[in-house]
Specification:
This protein is mainly α and about 150 residues long. The chain has one domain. It contains 4 helices and no strands. α1 packs antiparallel against α4. The protein is elongated, with a radius of gyration of 28 Å. The chain starts with a helix and ends with a helix. About 5% of the residues have low confidence.
């Protein structure tokens, strides 16, 4: 009788320890997965900034400063808006400025035509292939680790 009771208690103890260990392991794996996902997203964001900087012809630092200044101006304009109509007007004005900038860049690219030097053709993007490939790898890493 004592032996059966001790055997049952030992079995319950081992089973409880195994369940606790499994739950702890799953919790650690979830935390690790979240950390890896966060790191992959941060890397993707830094590559996006780098690609935008390369496309604009600025250094990454100069582009980040310009982006921060533009965002600051937009936030300040939104903060000074007193009602929804003024907010909509600020947003429309900002969207129009972005569209005008895109149109101006497209017009500049189209007006250049071909570069006569050594028969080179104008490149529409200034983003090197290795950065594009790294960007694709980073997107895949985010999809794999976060999805």
């Amino acid at each position: 009788m004592k032996g059966k009771l001790l055997g049952a208690a030992a079995t319950l103890l081992v089973l409880g320890a195994a369940i606790y260990g499994l739950n702890t392991w799953e919790h650690i794996q979830d935390q690790r997965q979240e950390a890896v996902c966060k790191a992959a997203r941060e890397h993707l964001n830094s590559l996006e900034t780098q690609a935008r900087a390369l496309a604009s012809g600025l250094s990454v630092e100069a582009y980040a400063e310009a982006e921060k200044a533009e965002a600051g101006q937009l936030v300040m304009a939104l903060d000074t808006a007193r009602n929804e109509a003024e907010v909509d007007a600020v947003i429309d004005k900002h969207a129009a400025a972005i569209e005008a900038q895109i149109s101006a860049e497209d017009a500049e690219v189209q007006s250049r035509g071909e570069q006569p030097f050594l028969g080179q053709e104008l490149k529409k993007q200034r983003i090197p292939t290795d950065v594009k490939q790294e960007f694709k790898r980073a997107e895949k890493a985010v999809a794999d680790t976060c999805g």
